[in-house]
Amino acid sequence: MAIEQLYTDQPITRKPITPTESLPAVRRPWLLPVLVAGLLATVLVSVGVGAVFISPAEVLTMAGHCVGLAAAPDEMKTAILTTIRLPRVCLGLLIGSGLAVAGAAMQGLFRNPLADPGLIGISSGASLAAVCMIVLELTLFQQLGGLLGYYALSLVAFLGACGTTLLVYRLARVAGQSVVTTMLLAGIAINALAGALTGLLTYMATDDQLRTITFWSLGSLGGASWTTVLALLPFTGVVLVGLPRLAKSLNLLSLGESQAAMLGVNLTGLKRQVIVLSTLAVGTSVAVAGIIGFVGLVIPHLIRLVAGADHRRVLIGSALGGAIVLTGADALARTIVAPAELPIGILTALLGTPVFLWMLINERTRS
Amino acid sequence: MLTVENLTFRTNQRTLLTQLSFEARAGELLAIVGPNGAGKSTLLKLCAGEQKPTAGTIALHATPLSAYSSKQLALCRGMLHQQNTLAFPVRVHELVLMGRYPHYGTHPSPADYSIAEAALETVGMQAFSNRIVSTLSGGEQQRVQLARVLAQVWAVPNGLLLLDEPTTGLDLLHQHQLLDVARQMAQQGFAVLAVLHDLNMAAQYADQILMLRAGQLEAYGTPNDVLTASLVEHVFGLPVKRLENPCHHCPLIVPVPTFSSAFTQ
After folding, report:
1. CA A253 to CA B87: how far, in whole Å?
2. What pLDDT does residue A18 have?
3. Domains of chain B, earliest start first
4. How many helices (H) and strands (E) does chain A have?
5. Coil, strand, or helix at residue A30?
6. Pick from B211, B162, B201, B165: which is nearest to B180 by CA?
7. CB A115 within 8 A of CB A106
8. What residues contact residue A329 under an 8 Å CB cut-off, 6+ apart?
C-alpha cells in the first residue's frame, strides 16, 4: 500500500480534537521589528559619523533627493557619502549578517551553543593561505597578484578556507557517515596545525610582511569600495537566503541526530548545506576584511536568549543583529582614535569577550 | 504490517543480530525483551530504517523499508529513543509541535496545533506547555518526548510506533499510563514495538513477546508461551518462579536470586 493512501487528513483519535481558538503566542514578537528599526537607525548614524559629520537629517535629504523628493543637498557631502561611507556601511552589513547567520547555523549543526565557524577551520585556513601568500612571495602568487591585483589575497584566503573545511569534513567522514563530534575534534586538530604553520611563516616574515600580516589578521573594513561590496553581495545573498531555509531541519537536529532522522531530516544533505553555506559566508568575509572574531559566536547566543530556540527566528535575528553590531562597531572603530582607525577585530573581541563571559557565568548560575 | 525475514546485522566485524524472523501485526503490541546487549535497540533501529540490514529484509506494508524515502517514513513511523538530550532551551509546546514538522511546510495548520495539544494532553503534560524542556524532571521530559512522537503519527491509521525502553525514568503511574497509550495506539491499527525490561509489564500489556539473547531469537509468541520459568532462567541467567497473575490472568515472574555475597571479609 502506498504511503499516500495510508496517510489521511481525517484524524482518528482517542480524544476528540477541537480546533484551538488561540494559537500559541510567539515569544517576544517585537524582537524582529525592533532589530529592523535598529538596523535602519545604525545605518543612518554610521554613514554620518567620521571626519566630516553628516547629520541623519542631511542623509535623509540626500536619500529624498535621489527619488526626486527633496532639494539638492551639499555636493561634497553627497560625494563623501556615496563613495566612502556608503560602501563601507554596506560591507559592514554584509559581513556582519553573514558571520552571525553562519555562526547560528554552525551552533545548530554542532548542537552546541558555543560552536563557532572558526571551530571547523574556516578562519584558520583562510589566514594560513593569506599568510602564505604574504610571506612566501611564490612566483605563482605573484602571477596571481598580477592578474587580480588587490583581490588576489582575498581569493587565496577564500580558497584556504574552503580547503581546510573540506579537509575537516573528509576526515570526519568515517564509514560513510560524518559524525559531528569527530568533525569538531578534527577541526581542533586542523586549527592547531594551521596555527602552527601560520606561526612558522610569521617567524620567517620580514618586518614589512609582519605589518601586513598583523593588519590583516586583526580585521578591518578599510578596504571597502563598491567593487568589494558587489563582489561579496552574491555570496552573502545566497547564504542569507539559504541558511534560514534550513531552520526547520536545524530545529529537528536539536533533538539529536537519530531523532531528526526519524522525522525525515536528510542528515548528510543538511550537514553539507550548512557547511558549504557557512564556509561561503565566513570565507568570503575573512577574504575581504580579515579575521573578525566573536560576531558569529555572541550574536546568535544573544538572539537565542531573547527569541528562544526556534532557528527560524534565531537565524533571521542573528543576520539582523550581526549587521547592526558590525556596522556600529565599524563606526566606533573609525571614530574613537580619529584620524587613525582601530582594527575592527580588536573592537569586536574587546566588546565580545565580556559579553561572552557574562553569558557563560549566567548560564552556570542558572543550571 | 512489519515483516522481518532472516534479518542479520553486522558492524565492525561483530554480528549483533543473527537470522531473525518475526512479524509485527497491526493492532498488536509486540514487546522485545532480553538481557543487556542482546541487540534490542539495534533491532528497533533497523525496524525504524535508521540502519540498513546486512542480510535479510524488513518490509513495511509489504514494501521493503529501503524503498521508502526518509520523508515517507517520517509520515507513518514514530520512534521514541532511549536517550533524548536537547541542545537548546526548547519549550514544551515547541518540542511537541516538532513532531508535526513532517506534515507541514512553512506554517503549521490549526489541525497541527490541535494534534500537538491533544498529544500533550494524552501524556498529562498540558500544564507544562510553556516550560523549557530541560528544566523538567527526567520522567516529565520522557513524557514530553512521547507526546512529540505521538503527535508525529497521530492522524495516521496504519502507522508504526517504536518505543525504546519507554518506561525508563517514569513513576509507577506513568509507566502504566504509557503502556496503556501504546496499547490504545495498537487498537487504533498501529503496530507497536516496545523494548521493555520489566517482564511483568510485558506480560500484562503485550500481545506478543520477542525474546532475544546475544542477537539470537530465543522465543517468540504470546506472553503465556514465552514467559516460562525455564526460558527466562536460560535467557536472563536468573532463577525465577512463574505464578499466575490473578488480576490480569497473565504470567507473573518472580525472581528467586541465588547470588553469592559481593563483599568477602
Report:
1. 9
2. 46
3. 2-86+156-255 (3.40.50.300)
4. 17, 2
5. coil
6. B201
7. yes
8. A344, A347, A348, A351
Q: For residue A285, name the pLDDT band (cuts at 50, 70, 90).
A: confident
ipTM for the assembly: 0.90
Q: Which one is predicted more confidently, A273 or A75? A: A273
Chain B partners within 8 Å of A13 (Cβ):
118, 154-155
Confidence of residue A1 (pLDDT cuts 50, 70, 90): very low
List all residues 6 or more positions away from B5 whose beta carbon is below 8 Å from its beta carbon.
Answer: B21, B56, B57, B58, B59
Share of chain B above pLDDT 70, in %: 99
- B241-250: long-range contacts (C-beta < 8 A, 24 or more apart)? B245/B200, B245/B203, B245/B204, B248/B203, B248/B204, B250/B203, B250/B204, B250/B223, B250/B224
Beta-ladder partners of B254: B241
Phi-psi region of A256 (alpha: psi -120 to 50; beta: other; left: phi over 0): left
Domains of chain A (ranges, CATH numbers): 89-366 (1.10.3470.10)
B77: part of which helix (H) or strand (E)? strand B77-80
How many interface pairs between A and B have CB atoms less than 8 angstroms apart? 132
DSSP state of B183: H
Q: Is B53 exposed, middle or buried (0-12, 13-18, 19+ CB in 10 A)?
A: buried
Q: Residues, chain A, total?
A: 367
* Nearest one of A271, A284, A204, A196 to A237, comparing CA atoms: A284
C-alpha B254/C-alpha B247 separation (Å) is 15
As a whole number, mean pLDDT of residues A134-155 equals: 69
Q: Flag if A264 and B101 touch (Cβ within 8 Å).
A: yes
pLDDT class of B236 with cuts at 50, 70, 90: very high
DSSP annotation of A294: S
What is the percentage of chain A residues whose pLDDT exceeds 70?
Answer: 86
Query: What is the pTM assigned to this prediction?
Result: 0.86
Residues from chain B that touch A27, judged by Cβ atoms under 8 A, are 91
CB contact under 8 A, B75 and A264: yes
Kindly indicate the confidence band of residue B198, based on its pLDDT and cuts at 50, 70 and 90.
very high
Distance CA A303, CA B88 (A): 12
Nearest residue to B136 (alpha-carbon basis) of B180, B172, B92, B185: B92
- Nearest alpha carbon to residue A251 among A311, A302, A308, A180: A311
Residues of chain B contacting residue A9, judged by C-beta atoms under 8 Å apart: 111, 155
A292 touches A285 (CB < 8 A):
yes
